[in-house]
């Protein structure tokens, strides 16, 4: 059993505080990971306010990079000393999605069997089965994706973000939206996920990339990541503006990275006939969208939701890291600030105010981490 410092929320709407927790040694199929970095994601705040479940107390954090420090019986995916990105899609290989060759839809993903606890024995619910705002965490070995090659210590903050939000945005365009070279892509909402969708459109070869937001600073950030046109939806109708930029037709692919009824309707209307739209912004429970069914039929195309960007970590994380090394994907640009474990609660406030793409917690372990060389 390991005593470590971690960020915990004990009840709905209570602040995220640093507590001592107990982390077990890994059992069969599990891995113990020394956390190097962990990004502050909107999903962590959803846990804090009870938007995910009422299974308090929560151990927050999930966008993480770390080093495997111990493995349990039967683990073959990773070895002690491996540098890894953590993921929340450890595929089972046996469910109907996995059997039909679509493991990115795995319906039975798994986490560590043992529970981490407070010092009084109270079991913690780990955010997305990870719980990485902690010096160490316990996960299923399949939640670890090995980082091949070399990275400097300061680069872990960037690659760790692939564990959730950045991959969700990249995958919404590359996987779910299946962007083709030369296509037009519009992204509504330019927070961290939306900006990643812009970067994905550029990576996928789109030649007209339209960023839509109410905030001019966010739009300028989107331009840095590849947007060719900017629309402030507070000053002009985004649907009409997108159509004007695409010959009056609408975009081939529109991504809603907000997840409210208004932006979903805008995405629906702003796509070309037979165009595609993808919802990657997470709606609040009970959000309703209404549309005449004849319009859904008449416009054709497809309406999809992106689950984790339809990501398969074993396939996608190494590819994205390679693009990062090649200079095709500016992961460093998503790191707005580097903070300590005790700064998570203030980071939530900055995130809600739209002042950061990502705050990233850097653990003391990072200072002692050598370059990874495999």
UniProtKB/TrEMBL annotation:
Residue span, Enoyl reductase (ER) domain: 10-361
PROSITE patterns: ADH_ZINC
Broad enzyme group: oxidoreductase
A Pfam family assignment: ADH_N
InterPro entries named in the record: ADH-like_C (IPR013149), ADH-like_N (IPR013154), ADH_Zn_CS (IPR002328), ER (IPR020843), GroES-like_sf (IPR011032), MycoS_dep_FDH (IPR017816), NAD(P)-bd_dom_sf (IPR036291)
EC numbers on record: 1.1.1.306
Cofactors that this protein relies on: Zn(2+)
Listed GO MF terms: mycothiol-dependent formaldehyde dehydrogenase activity; S-(hydroxymethyl)glutathione dehydrogenase [NAD(P)+] activity; zinc ion binding
Cited PANTHER family: ALCOHOL DEHYDROGENASE (PTHR43880), ALCOHOL DEHYDROGENASE CLASS-3 (PTHR43880:SF12)
Family of this protein: Belongs to the zinc-containing alcohol dehydrogenase family.
Name of the protein: S-(Hydroxymethyl)mycothiol dehydrogenase
């Amino acid at each position: 059993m390991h005593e470590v410092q971690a960020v915990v929320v004990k009840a709905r709407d209570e602040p995220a505080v640093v507590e001592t927790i107990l982390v077990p040694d890994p059992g069969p199929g599990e891995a113990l990971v020394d956390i190097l970095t962990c990004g502050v994601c909107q999903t962590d705040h959803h846990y804090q306010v009870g938007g995910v479940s009422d299974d308090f107390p929560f151990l927050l954090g999930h966008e993480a990079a770390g080093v495997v420090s111990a493995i349990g019986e039967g683990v073959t995916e990773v070895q002690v000393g491996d540098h890894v990105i953590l993921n929340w899609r450890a595929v089972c290989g046996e469910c109907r999605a996995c059997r039909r060759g679509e493991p990115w839809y795995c319906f039975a993903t798994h986490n560590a069997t043992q529970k981490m606890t407070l010092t009084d024995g109270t079991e913690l619910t780990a955010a997305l089965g990870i719980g990485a705002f902690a010096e160490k965490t316990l996960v299923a070995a399949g939640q670890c994706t090995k980082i091949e090659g070399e990275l400097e210590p300061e680069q872990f903050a960037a690659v760790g973000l692939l564990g959730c939000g950045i991959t969700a945005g990249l995958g919404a365009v590359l996987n779910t939206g299946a962007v083709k070279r030369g296509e037009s892509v519009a992204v509504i909402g330019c927070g961290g996920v939306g900006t990643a969708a812009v970067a994905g459109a550029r990576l996928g070869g789109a030649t007209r990339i339209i960023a839509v937001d109410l905030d001019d600073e966010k739009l300028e950030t989107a331009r840095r990541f590849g947007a060719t046109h900017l629309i402030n939806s507070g000053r002009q109708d985004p649907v009409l503006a997108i159509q004007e930029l695409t010959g009056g037709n609408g975009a081939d692919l529109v991504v809603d990275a907000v997840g409210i009824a208004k932006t979903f309707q805008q995405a629906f209307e702003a796509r070309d006939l037979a165009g595609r739209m993808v919802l990657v912004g997470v709606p609040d429970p009970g959000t309703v969208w209404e549309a005449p069914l004849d319009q859904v039929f008449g416009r054709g195309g497809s309406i999809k939701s992106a689950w984790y960007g339809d990501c398969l970590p074993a396939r996608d994380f190494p590819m994205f890291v390679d693009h990062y090394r090649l200079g095709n994907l500016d992961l460093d640009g998503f790191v707005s600030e580097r903070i300590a474990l005790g700064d998570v609660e203030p980071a939530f406030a900055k995130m809600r105010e739209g002042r950061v793409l990502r705050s990233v917690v850097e653990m003391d372990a990072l200072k002692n981490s050598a370059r990874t060389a495999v």
